[in-house]
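Issue: ligand-bound run for nickel (II) ion - logging full I/O for the record.

Environment: standard queue, default settings, no custom constraints.

Inputs:
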Amino acid sequence: MTTPNLFDTHAHLHFPDFAGDLDAVLARARQAGVSRFLTIGTDVATSRAAVALAAREPDVWASVGVHPHDAASADDAALEEIERLASAPRVVAIGETGLDFFRDLAPRDAQERAFRAQLALARRVGKPVVVHCRNAHDETLALLASEGVRETGGIMHCFSGDVGIARRCLDLGLVLSLAGPVTYPKPGALPEVARMVPADRLVVETDCPFLPPQGFRGKRNEPAHLAITAARVAALRGEPLADLAARMSENACALFRL
Ligand code: NI
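Outputs:
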């Protein structure tokens, strides 16, 4: 079997979870066919760490932003620092940002304010947004539409909606990213979503260290497991893994302008 050419569009490689063995983690991923990684900041400190890691590894790029869980920390000083980091070399996206009304770890008005500010930043710097959305699809899609996501482009990370929501995301010009949950025994609407998304609007991700695919649940996720998720999506679509993987990598490169 030929090794697929995969792009992990959403990883948190700079998180402390990988501090002890990142070189080995990256080596396993490269061995499994992952040739590019986007490592995603979730606040000022982790955005700085993401930029530093991307400066060190030639196949790692960075996204900088404040996660909805950390939205209470997104004061003016934090947003100014994110804006400064956004122009660092190898920063190709803004986020992750969005709304999470499932865990509600930050007040909803703070989440909306931080999301709006980062959408405006994405427009100013001309980079796509990495969007986190849980139990807030109507509110998230409304803000994306009103804040000009069509101009910047964006990616709906770890897509968790149904076919109707997928269609609305596609109408806004978004790319949909599937993660480990598509491999679970109870995947909800995700198989149907995996089949309906046009080939030029689909990517995959691990969201590591979170969301390991079936077979690794309860453990730390790592980018080498991306092949499991990609293989599941290829099987659902009835496409050869190598072809789909190459196509999804092209989609990610086009969105991030690599
Ligand atoms: Ni994430």
